[in-house]
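Before surveying the methods themselves, let us examine one representative protein, written as a sequence plus integers encoding its fold.
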Amino acid sequence: MTDLAATKEAARKAAFARRATAQAAAGPGQSALLSSVLAGYRGVPLSGYMPIRTEINPLPAMAEAAAYGPVAIPVIQAKGEPLDFSRWEPDMPLKPGPFGAQIPETDDFFEPEILIVPLVAFTRDGGRLGYGGGFYDRTLERLRARRATLAIGFAFAAQQADTLPQEPTDQPLDLIVTEREVIDIARA
């Protein structure tokens, strides 16, 4: 394991512990600030995610957004490839996908312009540490090469880190929304 890989793994382990503690203490309304941010983008195609493990839950905000425009969830097609995004609606039939996340039973793919990005840890300057597969980095690179794409990291405030190991391929977040605040990277 390289030094960078070992540093990332140590950062993930610490962040998973903080996230689990935050999730255990979380009450209702975790996505209220996310809903208010998304209200400014009504009708813009977006992608959320189906929460797994101890991830903060974006589903109420996604359901609200789906009343105004298309909402998708990520679908992993293959290791080392960018994500694709299939249309999601509240209460639609889902099936198990890779890594335990649910995906639509029937594919209806489109490209979102806004991505609500799950994460393990973040920094206030837009750094993100994910699970290590690089799916969101490859996806954001592909989408940003085609058009402006807004990446909104969604996490518990406890997932903030002072610093994170970053690589040139790591794609920055534009906004970070927690249960407590909205961090606009351009203004931070």
